[in-house]
Amino acid sequence: MSEMLKVAVLGARGRMGTAAVAAIEGAPDMELVAALGRSDPLDTLVEKGAQVVVDLTVPTSTEANVRFAVEHGIHAVVGTTGWDAARLASLEKLLAGRPETGVLIAPNFALGSVLATRFAQQAARYFDSVEIIELHHPRKVDAPSGTALRTAQLVAKARADAGVPAAPDATETTLVGARGARVSGIPVHSVRLAGLVAHQEVLLGSEGEQLTIRHDSFNHDSFMPGVLLGVRTVSNRPGLTVGLDGYLDLEG
Amino acid sequence: MSEMLKVAVLGARGRMGTAAVAAIEGAPDMELVAALGRSDPLDTLVEKGAQVVVDLTVPTSTEANVRFAVEHGIHAVVGTTGWDAARLASLEKLLAGRPETGVLIAPNFALGSVLATRFAQQAARYFDSVEIIELHHPRKVDAPSGTALRTAQLVAKARADAGVPAAPDATETTLVGARGARVSGIPVHSVRLAGLVAHQEVLLGSEGEQLTIRHDSFNHDSFMPGVLLGVRTVSNRPGLTVGLDGYLDLEG
Amino acid sequence: MSEMLKVAVLGARGRMGTAAVAAIEGAPDMELVAALGRSDPLDTLVEKGAQVVVDLTVPTSTEANVRFAVEHGIHAVVGTTGWDAARLASLEKLLAGRPETGVLIAPNFALGSVLATRFAQQAARYFDSVEIIELHHPRKVDAPSGTALRTAQLVAKARADAGVPAAPDATETTLVGARGARVSGIPVHSVRLAGLVAHQEVLLGSEGEQLTIRHDSFNHDSFMPGVLLGVRTVSNRPGLTVGLDGYLDLEG
Amino acid sequence: MSEMLKVAVLGARGRMGTAAVAAIEGAPDMELVAALGRSDPLDTLVEKGAQVVVDLTVPTSTEANVRFAVEHGIHAVVGTTGWDAARLASLEKLLAGRPETGVLIAPNFALGSVLATRFAQQAARYFDSVEIIELHHPRKVDAPSGTALRTAQLVAKARADAGVPAAPDATETTLVGARGARVSGIPVHSVRLAGLVAHQEVLLGSEGEQLTIRHDSFNHDSFMPGVLLGVRTVSNRPGLTVGLDGYLDLEG
User: Fold this and answer.
1) What's any one GO cellular component for it (chains A, B, C, D) (predicted)?
2) How confident is the model at residue C251 (pLDDT cuts 50, 70, 90)?
């Protein structure tokens, strides 16, 4: 067996961080060399010889963390939000001078969710109709969900690029809201139901057939396989990758 | 084996009528004695000795047909729409003088749909949240469907009668339509998708669990078992019954 | 507002017991007067004036607990297994001398699951075909699940009582197991999938239509509404009731 | 607008052929130049100037039909079964001498089904568990379905290639058949239900999440978009292509 991969976690006391620490400790090919909280010095990463750092901190500190890692030749897997175009451009410039170092910035580590979005996008041009139903717990404050908005936009773009006409719809009389919200022309329906966690269905239909792509997220453990995949892959993908789907092998 | 039940069909050339004629001819305990179209005389029912007549005509002729049947002691199973409160009251008065004759007026003969609505109504008071998703072919002109409207109203009444508070919903920011139409306070979502026929899901949720009642109608054959059940039962149910669920034995 | 209902929990340190304690403390119409573990004396129930006791202990102690309660005029809601015919008969004899005291023994407190089984049973006679799919986490040691076995038996009995013929099935060539296990003649399919908790679908079909009744249990919180319903109802149902469905109002 | 594509159908009197004739006549970019039955001469294809021929005949005549087309520079889209390795090798040799001519041999023209299989195959390596449920009308004589067998084999191969261990399964006591049939190690469950047509679900699960890919085939119209896609694409894909997925653009 080859040597263990030395991994550090930043934001190790948060909910995601705690789960990541446990997942890395449980991975047979990884060694957790540091689990740092807010006030711990970044120099520890160098002292402990970390090869990959997992950043699960907050928008105000993630950029400095990642830049420190890249400057010290440590690959980074980043689940923190707050990376706008300016930050990404600045990071790419830094990485240009560090051609051997890789950074993955992923807004979503749930493999199933990433795959579901990709499949919906690929299938969208081959069907007459597409609609999205997302279902969440009733404590959620926004509707539709961010994932549903993004899925609708990607699906709409795929259909536009392929020249697919608008889905047929003969609705004449309707109650306000019955046909959902329109996101880039795609109907999106948001269900809020006690007992649920986070679920999404993309329904695609043509005469005589239906294709349904459904993802259910039951708890936060669902993010860990994606984090581990990122940690295992990042050293072989120099430069900046945005989105976990860039690491997936979908050649089938 | 007992004698065959003598059954006649009115509106026998229409789509539903044609299917009913075939179903009755295929039933081992029934004999089709008449299959009448628009211009055929009702006296034929008497001449042929019909015991039960199935009316699948049009709103303008159904009342006269049923009154003729009752006046001649023939039981009636009616799938035609157009029976408002005045017509029903008038029919009940007529039936009061014919205590041995039964009439079933059913807006929906799909057993599965009738059962799904009943179950949703029974379960509604036991869950924190209820929402309805109905899915139809894109040639449908109204949204929500009539069945969804009726289901929402019955569900809402069951919850009100049991004193159930409104479902929790923390939504603060939303796109118009995302949370569906409100029908008696119940969110109803209408999907229109090429390839579909007629489908409905009632989702009920409480902390930790979900109950889903789904009905799929794939084609019009789904109405025939309900029609046959009506024909077999009507002679044992004197007076007026509205709704096929009145004939179902749900004591289980 | 009326007085609070005084409730005690036996087995209060177990997983179910801990959840029950929290649920009772959170109920606006209940006061938790005792939360007893294995070695705590039952006399505490009397001292604290408990009106209802919730027994969530183990098969070896549940009978003595319930008998103690009944002898002291305390109603009992029992979620512990181990009540065979002999124990039930003995308890009924004891209750005969205590006509004002009620006991509910419920193998399943998940309202959704209880309703799903009841609805499947009621609908079974109205469809040509019925099959059951149950889906659980892969740590489960038995297949099919106990709930699926019981559902299949009840469904089969309902069909037999109504004289429904066997479901059509033209299968000639098959791999062993493809068509599931036969439980009282009903095909039952058991899925074991990482990520799942406890789920069951009853599929009912006739020409042109399908009715699906699905229950999802996401976590143990799903049992608490049923426990609270039992606590609130037991004092109005003297004698022995087996099964939470005996407390449900399904007249809708 | 460019010129119309001249298309001929062989096997035009069969069920699939009849549907193909209608679909081609309805396509705005195609002209149906011949619709031939069993005894019609193939020379008609040349006389009418067919550019693409759709073969929907029988295993005993499809090879001769396709060879005739290729020899006359006519592209062919083939839905007939019976193409074994020897026939395919012989056809490839013929095509080598006709580098401008394309042939598509597709066992399945339902776009949704082809996509569902592809997606299942791509996702299989990223989840701990995979199971397949296929649901069909009760007149089907084989279980599992051919599509389910093929999906299971492709899914199993994808997991083996990626070194994924067997799915977890703690089942100790089981009724025969409950856990389905094993196809290359993947559990496959076959439901036969009155009212259904042809449906398949691939369930993929890991800790905390589930991905479900479902395809519903409601009637034979579902094959026509795939046939039209084949007709439109075949002239740009010289040589032999097996499987409609070879024509799909899944780069998304």
Assistant:
1) cytosol
2) low
CB pairs under 8 A between A and C: 11
| Residues of chain D positioned with their CB less than 8 A from the CB of A212 | 212-216
Q: How many CB atoms lie within 10 A of CB B28?
A: 6
Q: Please confirm, yes or no, whether D157 is among the known catalytic residues.
A: no
Residue A129, both tokens = 């109709």
In a domain, B252, yes or no: no
Q: Do D126 and D198 belong together in one domain? A: yes
Residue range A32-53, pLDDT digits in tens: 999 999 999 999 999 999 999 9
CATH code of B198's domain: 3.30.360.10
**Closest alpha carbon within chain A to C222:** A195
* Residues in CB range of B40: below 8 A, 6 or more apart: none
Tokens 């040349």, located at residue: D46
The single-letter code of the amino acid at D166 is: A
Instruction: Please tell me the predicted confidence (pLDDT) of residue B219.
Output: 85
Please report all neighbours of C, defined by 3+ CB atom pairs within 8 A: A, B, D
ipTM above 0.95, yes or no: no
pLDDT score recorded for residue C10: 98
By residue range, what is the domain housing residue C187?
111-218
Q: What is the mean pLDDT of the segment spanning A176-195?
A: 97
Instruction: Report the C-alpha gap between A126 and A131 in whole angstroms.
Output: 14
Instruction: Tell me, yes or no, whether A186 lies in a domain.
Output: yes
Distance from the Cα of residue B183 to its chain's centroid: 20
Residues B91 and B134 occupy one common structural domain: no
CATH code: domain of residue A58: 3.40.50.720
The reply to whether A130 and A184 lie within a common domain is yes
Residues A188, A146, single domain; the answer is yes
Do residues C173 and C99 share a domain?
no
Nearest residue to C136 via CA among C105, C167, C154, C113: C113
DSSP B42: T
Residues B169 and B48 in one domain: no
Alpha carbon separation from C188 to A157, B124, C112, D192 (Å, rounded): 43, 28, 20, 12
Q: How far apart are CA A192 and CA B204, in angstroms?
A: 10
* Count of alpha carbons within 13 angstroms of residue B168, beta-carbon side: 16
Q: How far is C69 from chain B (nearest CA, A)?
A: 28
Q: What is the pLDDT of residue B249?
A: 83
Tokens at A49, concatenated: 């010889």
Spatial separation of the C-alpha atoms in residues B39 and B53, rounded to whole Å? 16
- In this structure, is residue A252 part of a structural domain? no
Residue C233 lies in a domain: yes
Question: Cβ(D199)–Cβ(D135) under 8 Å?
Answer: yes
* Residue D167 and residue D45 share a domain: no
- Measuring CA to CA, how many Å separate C117 from each of A231, B230, C243? 46, 26, 12
Which residues of chain D carry a pLDDT beneath 50? Answer: 1, 252
Please tell me the predicted confidence (pLDDT) of residue B250: 78
For chain C, what is the mean pLDDT? 94
State pLDDT tens for residues A192-239. Answer: 999 999 999 999 999 999 999 999 999 877 889 899 999 999 999 999
pLDDT at A3: 84
Nearest chain D residue to B197, by CA = D218
Query: For C208-217, what is the mean pLDDT?
Result: 96
Question: Is D136 considered catalytic here?
Answer: yes
Confidence of residue B251 (pLDDT cuts 50, 70, 90): low
Which residues are registered as beta bridge partners of C160? none
Pairing of strands D5-10, B75-78: unpaired
**Same domain as A214, residue A115:** yes
Work out how many domains chain B is built from and give that number: 2
